[in-house]
């Protein structure tokens, strides 16, 4: 609390409180301090004035240089229009030095080729699309791919033209009767893949028998057992050609052992051509040959000739059936 002998004291928060009544310091009187009107401040001329409510940047006046802290901050900024040397930016020169040069880019073979192919005046031809060289100007000089503008035009014109004759029919409009009318009759001359004409087959067979050791037997197309005498099972040729294939299927109820067993085509009871030799112990034996070439004329005859081995175990109830293909 303040007393009458001191001009100030402290409040509970430690703030200095000036006594507004007369006070003394020693024996000296302190004049009474004027009381500040509410909301005003004491000016240097001893009068009081109310502060303005707020300050607006556009309304602040004065000398910028007098505001030392503000002036110092603004002085450190760059002008709105300025430039830099490369050395002003750390590492910029090193980064630039690491880039490929224009001369190095131009020396690349692909880029150099592309540059050499460019038009001297970009895409603006001096005479639009009408080249002074005419339609013989080469569009591609790549050897077999060479083509001129004239050839391209000819190809396009051809592609737009009608190719079918004026009286052509659509496939869907062709009648079965029209096809039959065209195909009726005999074709006098033709060929087939393989170089020959149409071939024909002759069937051969032999009824059940029990093959005996070391015998030669013959059969043809008659329904009888194999014969031990040649010339009794003739198959006559009535159309000249070449025997190309023989396919004889043999089945035995008792398979027998695997000694070599051979079948032949015997022509005119004089010439033998091997069909196949089998050494198998199985009920099914297929004597097959697709590589034959035996010329036959009209009037020739053939028989199937079998040479039977001496078996360890003879096959039994054996029957034959097959065909001869002539082309």
Could you characterize the architecture of this molecule?
- This protein is an alpha+beta fold and 327 residues long.
- Among the domains are: 8-49, no CATH class; 200-326, Viral head domain of polysaccharide receptor-binding protein-like (Jelly Rolls, Sandwich).
- It is built from 6 helices and 18 strands.
- It has helices spanning 68-75, 92-97, 102-107, 109-117, 149-160, 176-183, and strands at residues 8-10, 16-18, 23-25, 28-30, 41-42, 48-49, 138-140, 147-148, 200-209, 216-219, 235-236, 241-254, 261-267, 271-278, 284-289, 294-296, 301-307, 316-326.
- Strands 9, 12, 15, 16 and 18 form a 5-stranded antiparallel beta sheet that branches. Strands 10, 11, 13, 14 and 17 form a 5-stranded antiparallel beta sheet that branches. Strands 1-2 form a two-stranded antiparallel ribbon.
- The N and C termini lie far apart (148 Å).
Quick summary:
This protein is α+β, with helices and mostly antiparallel strands and 327 residues long. The chain has 6 helices and 18 strands. The model is unreliable at 1-5 (pLDDT under 50).
Topology:
Layout: E1 8-10, E2 16-18, E3 23-25, E4 28-30, E5 41-42, E6 48-49, H1 68-75, H2 92-97, H3 102-107, H4 109-117, E7 138-140, E8 147-148, H5 149-160, H6 176-183, E9 200-209, E10 216-219, E11 235-236, E12 241-254, E13 261-267, E14 271-278, E15 284-289, E16 294-296, E17 301-307, E18 316-326
Antiparallel strand pairs: 1-2, 3-4, 5-6, 7-8, 9-18, 10-17, 11-17, 12-15, 12-16, 12-18, 13-14, 13-17
């Amino acid at each position: 609390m303040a007393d009458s002998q001191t001009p100030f004291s402290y409040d509970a928060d430690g703030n200095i409180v000036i006594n507004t009544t007369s006070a003394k310091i020693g024996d000296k009187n302190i004049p009474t301090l004027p009381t500040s009107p509410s909301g005003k401040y004491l000016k240097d001329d001893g009068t009081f004035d109310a502060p303005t409510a707020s300050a607006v940047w556009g309304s602040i006046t004065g000398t910028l240089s007098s505001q030392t802290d503000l002036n110092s901050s603004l002085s450190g900024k760059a002008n709105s229009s300025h430039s830099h040397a490369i050395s002003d930016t750390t590492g910029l020169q090193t980064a630039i030095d690491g880039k490929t040069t224009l001369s190095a880019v131009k020396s690349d073979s692909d880029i150099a080729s592309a540059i050499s192919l460019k038009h001297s005046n970009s895409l603006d031809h001096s005479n639009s699309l009408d080249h002074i060289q005419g339609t013989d100007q080469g569009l591609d000089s790549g050897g077999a791919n060479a083509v001129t503008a004239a050839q391209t035009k000819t190809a396009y014109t051809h592609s737009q033209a009608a190719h079918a004759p004026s009286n052509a029919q659509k496939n869907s409009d062709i009648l079965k009767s029209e096809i039959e009318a065209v195909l009726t009759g005999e074709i006098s001359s033709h060929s087939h893949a393989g170089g020959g004409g149409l071939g024909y087959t002759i069937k051969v067979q032999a009824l059940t028998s029990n093959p005996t050791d070391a015998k030669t037997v013959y059969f043809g197309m008659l329904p009888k057992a194999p014969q031990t005498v040649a010339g009794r099972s003739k198959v006559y040729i009535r159309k000249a050609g070449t025997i190309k294939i023989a396919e004889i299927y043999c089945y035995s109820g008792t398979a027998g052992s695997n000694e070599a067993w051979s079948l032949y085509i015997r022509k005119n009871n004089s010439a033998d051509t091997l069909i196949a030799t089998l050494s198998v112990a199985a009920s099914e034996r297929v004597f097959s040959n697709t590589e034959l070439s035996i010329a036959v004329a009209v009037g020739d005859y053939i028989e199937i000739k079998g040479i039977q081995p001496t078996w360890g175990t003879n096959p039994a109830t054996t029957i034959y059936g097959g065909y001869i293909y002539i082309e």
